[in-house]
Amino acid sequence: LAKTTQPISMDSYEGQEVNITCSHNNIATNDYITWYQQFPSQGPRFIIQGYKTKVTNEVASLFIPADRKSSTLSLPRVSLSDTAVYYCLVGDWNNNDMRFGAGTRLTVKP
Amino acid sequence: GAVVSQHPSWVICKSGTSVKIECRSLDFQATTMFWYRQFPKQSLMLMATSNEGSKATYEQGVEKDKFLINHASLTLSTLTVTSAHPEDSSFYICSAPEPTGRYGYTFGSGTRLTVV
Q1: Do the Cβ atoms of B116 and B13 come closer than 8 Å?
Q2: How does DSSP assign A58-94, residue by residue?
Q3: Chain B residue nearest residue A48, CA to CA
Q4: Cis omega before residue A7 (within 30°)?
């Protein structure tokens, strides 16, 4: 299982773009990278998933370099409601191994 | 999309009693479900993997006789905290693989357990 490392916390202001990077040096060939968002007293919510290069959906983009040893979640124009903890998970769906790292606590200020 | 329903949302129980938490996949079948616990300001800690029709796999340090997991059908997994103590007070969350594989894992809304 690829261990992940993220910054413990980040601060931003409304309207800014936020980039959260996750390191996963021992990612395996079959591993995907998935990001989740969690608000207090709620279950995590899927944000985005990717395998390589760039993935974009309606809420975020995920950038994965060629060596796949890291990934960057990009949140465009954050708002106060984006204040949450963001988790990066790396794993192979077939192994069903879902362990969370420490996550990044993002605080968006007015 | 795939929805995992978790009940109850919160429960308060007395020390020594047992509490059951249910996790249902509403519009898909889940042969595997995961159970986590989360203490304030901490990350989710995987407790066990629930497998339909077979015994659950517990993580190291998790007492299987205290946290009973039953996955009797493809849409229901239950976690029973037996002989609860105040230190078992926590936020418990279940999840299941989203069936298409394109949207990660789907999580329940969590259960806040308070043992008094």
Answers
A1: yes
A2: SS-EEEE-TT-SEEEEEESS--GGG-EEEEEEEE-GG
A3: B103
A4: no
Q: How far apart are CA B23 and CA B51, in angstroms?
A: 13
Instruction: Write the DSSP assignment of B74-94 as a string of letters.
Output: TTEEEEEE-S--GGG-EEEEE
pLDDT tens profile B37-73:
999 999 999 999 999 888 999 999 999 999 999 998 9
Say how far apart CA B46 and CA B90 lie, in whole Å: 13
Instruction: Enter the tokens of residue A101.
Output: 């790292």
**A100 vs B: CB within 8 A:** yes
DSSP letter, residue A8: S
pLDDT tens across A2-61, in order? 689 999 999 999 999 999 999 999 999 989 999 999 999 999 999 999 999 999 999 999
Assess contact for A21 and A70: CB atoms under 8 A: yes
Residue among A36, A101, A103 whose CB faces B104 most closely: A36
Instruction: Dig out the tokens for B63 from the structure.
Output: 């007492």
Query: What band does A84 get if pLDDT is binned at 50, 70 and 90?
Result: very high
Report yes or no: B44 at the A interface, CB cutoff 8 Å: yes
